[in-house]
TrEMBL record:
<dbReference type="GO" id="GO:0003684">
    <property type="term" value="F:damaged DNA binding"/>
</dbReference>
<keyword id="KW-0456">Lyase</keyword>
<keyword id="KW-0540">Nuclease</keyword>
<keyword id="KW-0238">DNA-binding</keyword>
<keyword id="KW-0511">Multifunctional enzyme</keyword>
<dbReference type="InterPro" id="IPR010979">
    <property type="entry name" value="Ribosomal_uS13-like_H2TH"/>
</dbReference>
<dbReference type="InterPro" id="IPR012319">
    <property type="entry name" value="FPG_cat"/>
</dbReference>
<dbReference type="InterPro" id="IPR010663">
    <property type="entry name" value="Znf_FPG/IleRS"/>
</dbReference>
<keyword id="KW-0227">DNA damage</keyword>
<keyword id="KW-0326">Glycosidase</keyword>
<dbReference type="GO" id="GO:0000703">
    <property type="term" value="F:oxidized pyrimidine nucleobase lesion DNA N-glycosylase activity"/>
</dbReference>
<keyword id="KW-0862">Zinc</keyword>
<dbReference type="Pfam" id="PF01149">
    <property type="entry name" value="Fapy_DNA_glyco"/>
</dbReference>
<dbReference type="GO" id="GO:0008270">
    <property type="term" value="F:zinc ion binding"/>
</dbReference>
<dbReference type="GO" id="GO:0140078">
    <property type="term" value="F:class I DNA-(apurinic or apyrimidinic site) endonuclease activity"/>
</dbReference>
<dbReference type="InterPro" id="IPR044090">
    <property type="entry name" value="Nei2_N"/>
</dbReference>
<dbReference type="InterPro" id="IPR035937">
    <property type="entry name" value="FPG_N"/>
</dbReference>
Length: 277
């Protein structure tokens, strides 16, 4: 599932290509909305909300999409060949005189009244990259279930919207606790959680970058190849801080990474070494 900074960049690209222009062609290739005719309507803007994309039209309708694991939006010039996958994976086409936006493998695509957007995004917590960002509210949401593991709580978009598995892992490292540490067991959680929420916002904001030229995600500040992330994706490799091999285990269906020396708290027992021969 994409992180909030990636969705923010996608929204910026779509907004730059579509906003303020009438659609000359629109094709929604999902059965429920296949007959919807959006041609002639002007795109007012494309707004990210957490990991959701809201394309608002002057007709009072919003095209809601979510990328989840495999979805993608691409923008092409009028004479440019579409390169996002086979044609049967296309779910949406929005074109104006100067650009064409093509959505591939979109698992969520629906039209709804703009006035009804809360139906699909109203459950979300404060958006890390949105105008409603509020670290105190995000911290209060996290602390509302003190027995919940921190990693799961950070991924719950109802607490704060925009964190994916990479930032979850890196934030647990920065907090010096394992992803399985209960929220209430953090050192002074009432003080730690607002700082952690603020750190999450700074990391995502720093990684939004240029919408047209996305860069490799970085949480360490190092530009040396292979040192952009503290622990995510570094299973069995040395921790960048102490040199201890980073461990990996499943948490709620996703891989979690942590340094057993730098991060205190509960963790799954290492898998036993299999003997051969």
């Amino acid at each position: 599932m994409p992180e909030g900074d990636s969705v923010h960049r996608v929204a910026a690209r779509l907004h730059a290509a579509l906003a303020g222009e009438p659609l000359t062609h629109a094709d929604l290739r999902v059965p429920r909305f296949a007959t919807a005719d959006l041609t002639g309507h002007t795109v007012l803007g494309v707004t990210p909300r957490g990991k959701h994309l809201l394309t608002r039209l002057d007709s009072g309708l919003t095209l809601h999409s979510h990328l989840r694991m495999d979805g993608a939006w691409y923008v092409f010039a009028p004479d440019q060949k579409w390169r996002g996958g086979p044609a049967h994976e296309i779910r949406a086409v929005l074109a104006n005189a100067g650009a064409t936006a093509v959505g591939y493998r979109l698992p969520v695509l629906e039209l709804l009244r703009t006035a009804d957007e809360d139906r699909v995004v109203g459950h979300l917590g404060p958006d890390l990259l949105g105008p409603d960002w509020d670290p105190a509210r995000a911290a209060a949401n996290l602390l509302a279930d003190p027995a919940r593991p921190l990693g799961e709580a950070l991924l719950d978009q109802r607490n704060l919207a925009g964190i994916g598995n990479i930032y979850k892992t890196e934030l647990c490292f920065l907090a010096q606790v394992t992803p399985w540490t209960p929220v209430g067991d953090l050192p002074d959680p009432a003080a730690t959680l607002p700082r952690l929420a603020a750190a999450a916002q700074r990391l995502l904001a720093a990684n939004t970058g240029d919408p047209g030229r996305p860069r490799r995600r970085n949480t360490t500040g190092s530009r040396r190849p292979g040192r952009e992330l503290f622990v995510y994706g570094r299973a069995h490799r040395p921790c960048l801080r102490c040199g201890t091999p980073v461990r990996e285990a499943d948490q709620d269906g996703r891989p979690a990474y942590w340094c057993p020396r730098c991060q205190a708290g509960p963790a799954p027992a290492p898998e036993p070494t299999r003997r051969t021969g």
